[in-house]
Amino acid sequence: MKLVVVSAGLSVPSSTRLLADRLTTAVQGRTPVDVEVIELRELAVEIAQNLTNGFPGRRLAAALEAVTEADGLIAVTPVFSASYSGLFKSFFDVLDRDALAGKPVLIAATGGTARHSLVLDHALRPLFSYLKAVVVPTGVYAASEDWGAEGLPERIERAAGELAALMRGLSGTTRPAKADDEVKVVPFAEQLAALRPTA
Fold it and tell me: Which residues form a coiled coil (predicted)?
């Protein structure tokens, strides 16, 4: 299976990339995946050109293809003005509108203060719902004070487990059905409930 990680961090080193790496490692600990990381800051010029002329450059075209072909996606952005960054949004603006349909996506964000944590539910989740992605229940927000504190590692592990389970469930690795096979339909709400940790 292929996991693509989109990081919109602008600095080097970047807390956004650090969070993306930790989420990736947690997913790899649960299911075997081939990982491709896309650093949007390296594609900023090509993204801007694509917005103005309608044609992706070579590196941007490869990134868009990787996202389209992925079995799962981790999308991480820094928070600017209480929302995702313009670079992050511009990348998904140039992506084909059906590229994420049915694709499992883990959303995450970083910011200087915990007051921006609602960006996950008020900006990122609606964006990916509009793109018809299957967004895992647990989003991960990391404020500056969260690094090294209690809570963040647990959220990372929970979100990674949800993404890994969805990727395994949606992968086409099962054998073809036979005529005498019993077909069992499990409602999506029950599938999500099975992913939640039990007390």
Answer: none
